[in-house]
């Protein structure tokens, strides 16, 4: 073949079959070639179809399955991650809502306290005002009573000094009362 | 082909490499183990080493050898599927056997001192005939006598049909001839040309034309690369034609 040397080529001149034209057309060799070809092909076919090809096919199938499984698993993980994200978001929203509710509640509570304090203060103020008014009225009443007494006394004294005969304390008192009433 | 060098001593015997002879001596009988037998056996063993030993790990992440076996499997299966469709996949082991056997015979034939069984028309002829017969049997089993319509082109105008039918019949029966000769002749011619160049190189050295001997040497290097390509392509062509014939049998065009 390709790398045969000159010496090798020289030796080949002595080959017995060399002279008979194409070795391909040396029909004496055909039965042997065909017989062994049949043996080789049948053996190879049996080995390939019974062992090699089913094995390679199963290996390829297993690999495809494994890859599909891995993809499924990745999909599952992704779904779980998304679920966790959703849960986190939900918890966050809930917490925010709760915080807002607490704030609102506190605000309402404070408002209510302020309101009650205000009401109490108002009530106290009005109570005090009423008391003061009462006191003022009492003072005025007592003052008025004093005025009546002084007026009656004065009127009696005046009448006694001017008209001692006509002095009638009861009449004077009634007259003063009528005059002041 | 053979040319004479010094004193009538022949240097170039490009056909001697194709001589089939019993390796244990004696007269050749149908059961004789010949150099052809040995190289067929080596091919079968190499294929088994690749596809059976190489895949015995059944690894999910394949080793290098297992990758090659899987690549070969995928290549043949895809080619068959593309040409002959789903129904063709039933015959996958058959196609795979033929392709790997031819490929390994061709490639191992590139080794120095080796023998190329596929350079013999007896071998390629039997394989082509096996394909022809099995494909025809498949066709008749699937379509019955309706398969004869394969030779009766309905799309042609009426008067042309008998003529085309004759042509179709001839081309059908010529298939095994072209199928086998294409492979055998390619192998034969390539190896013979390599030998001619090698002989030329030897003659030039012997004749004292040392410097000029670089030319046939360069030619040999280029041809060797080409021959590797041819070794693969002819195996591929044999397989793809088998697939095409199978497709014709299964789907009638």
From TrEMBL, chain A:
Per the record, the coiled-coil ranges are 64-94
- What InterPro entries does this protein's entry cite? ATP_synth_b/b'su_bac/chlpt, ATP_synthase_B_chain
What topology does the record note for this protein and the membrane?
Answer: Single-pass membrane protein
Q: Which UniProt keywords apply?
A: ATP synthesis, Cell membrane, CF(0), Coiled coil, Hydrogen ion transport, Ion transport, Membrane, Transmembrane, Transmembrane helix, Transport
- Domain of life the protein comes from: Bacteria
Record localization: Cell membrane; Endomembrane system
> Which family does the record assign?
Belongs to the ATPase B chain family.
What is the stated purpose of this protein?
F(1)F(0) ATP synthase produces ATP from ADP in the presence of a proton or sodium gradient. F-type ATPases consist of two structural domains, F(1) containing the extramembraneous catalytic core and F(0) containing the membrane proton channel, linked together by a central stalk and a peripheral stalk. During catalysis, ATP synthesis in the catalytic domain of F(1) is coupled via a rotary mechanism of the central stalk subunits to proton translocation. Component of the F(0) channel, it forms part of the peripheral stalk, linking F(1) to F(0). The b'-subunit is a diverged and duplicated form of b found in plants and photosynthetic bacteria.
The record's listing under PANTHER family reads: ATP SYNTHASE SUBUNIT B (PTHR33445:SF1), ATP SYNTHASE SUBUNIT B', CHLOROPLASTIC (PTHR33445)
> How the protein assembles, per its UniProt entry?
F-type ATPases have 2 components, F(1) - the catalytic core - and F(0) - the membrane proton channel. F(1) has five subunits: alpha(3), beta(3), gamma(1), delta(1), epsilon(1). F(0) has three main subunits: a(1), b(2) and c(10-14). The alpha and beta chains form an alternating ring which encloses part of the gamma chain. F(1) is attached to F(0) by a central stalk formed by the gamma and epsilon chains, while a peripheral stalk is formed by the delta and b chains.
Q: Which HAMAP family does this UniProt record tie to the protein?
A: ATP_synth_b_bprime
Q: What is this protein called?
A: ATP synthase subunit b
- Source organism: Paralimibaculum aggregatum
Automatic annotation (TrEMBL), chain B:
Spell out the PANTHER family in the cross-references: ATP SYNTHASE SUBUNIT A
Q: Which organism is it from?
A: Paralimibaculum aggregatum
Which keywords annotate this record? ATP synthesis, Cell membrane, CF(0), Hydrogen ion transport, Ion transport, Membrane, Transmembrane, Transmembrane helix, Transport
Would you tell me the protein name for this molecule? ATP synthase subunit a
- Localization terms from the record: Cell membrane; Membrane
- Job of this protein: Key component of the proton channel; it plays a direct role in the translocation of protons across the membrane.
Topology within the bilayer: Multi-pass membrane protein
> Into which family does the record put it?
Belongs to the ATPase A chain family.
List the Gene3D superfamilies. ATP synthase, F0 complex, subunit A
Transmembrane domains' residue ranges: 37-55, 91-115, 121-140, 192-215, 221-246
Q: Does the keyword Transport apply?
A: yes
């Amino acid at each position: 073949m390709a790398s045969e040397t000159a010496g090798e080529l020289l030796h080949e001149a002595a080959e017995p079959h060399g002279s008979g034209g194409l070795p391909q057309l040396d029909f004496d060799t055909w039965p042997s070639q065909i017989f062994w070809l049949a043996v080789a092909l049948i053996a190879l076919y049996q080995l390939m179809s019974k062992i090699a090809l089913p094995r390679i096919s199963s290996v390829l199938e297993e690999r495809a399955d494994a890859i599909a499984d891995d993809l499924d698993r990745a999909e599952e993980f992704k779904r779980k991650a998304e679920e966790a994200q959703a849960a986190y978001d939900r918890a966050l929203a809930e917490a925010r809502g709760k915080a807002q509710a607490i704030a609102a509640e506190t605000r309402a509570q404070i408002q209510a306290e302020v309101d009650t304090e205000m009401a109490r203060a108002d009530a106290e103020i009005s109570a005090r005002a009423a008391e003061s008014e009462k006191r003022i009225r009492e003072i005025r009443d007592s003052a008025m009573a004093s005025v009546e007494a002084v007026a009656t006394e004065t009127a009696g004294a005046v009448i006694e000094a001017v008209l001692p005969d006509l002095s009638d304390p009861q009449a004077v008192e009634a007259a003063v009362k009528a005059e002041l009433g | 082909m053979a040319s004479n060098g010094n004193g009538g001593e022949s240097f170039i015997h490009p056909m001697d490499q194709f001589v089939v002879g019993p390796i244990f001596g004696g007269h050749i009988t149908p059961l004789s183990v010949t150099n052809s037998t040995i190289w067929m056996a080596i091919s079968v063993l190499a294929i088994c080493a690749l596809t059976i030993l190489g895949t015995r790990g059944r690894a999910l992440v394949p080793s290098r050898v297992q990758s090659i076996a899987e690549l070969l499997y995928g290549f043949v299966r895809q080619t068959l599927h593309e040409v002959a469709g789903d129904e063709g996949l039933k015959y996958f082991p058959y196609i795979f056997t033929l392709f790997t056997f031819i490929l390994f015979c061709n490639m191992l034939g590139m080794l120095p001192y080796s023998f190329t069984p596929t350079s013999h028309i007896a071998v390629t002829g039997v394989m082509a005939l096996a394909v022809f017969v099995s494909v025809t049997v498949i066709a008749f089993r699937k379509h019955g006598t309706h398969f004869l319509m394969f030779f009766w082109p309905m799309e042609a105008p009426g008067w042309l049909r008998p003529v085309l039918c004759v042509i179709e019949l001839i081309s059908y029966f010529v298939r095994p001839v072209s199928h086998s000769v294409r492979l055998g002749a390619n192998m034969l011619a390539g190896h013979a040309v390599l030998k001619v160049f090698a002989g030329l190189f030897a003659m030039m050295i012997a004749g004292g034309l040392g410097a000029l001997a670089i030319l046939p040497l360069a030619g040999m290097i280029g041809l060797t690369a080409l021959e590797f390509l041819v070794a693969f392509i002819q195996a591929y062509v044999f397989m793809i034609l088998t697939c095409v014939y199978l497709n014709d049998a299964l789907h009638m065009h």
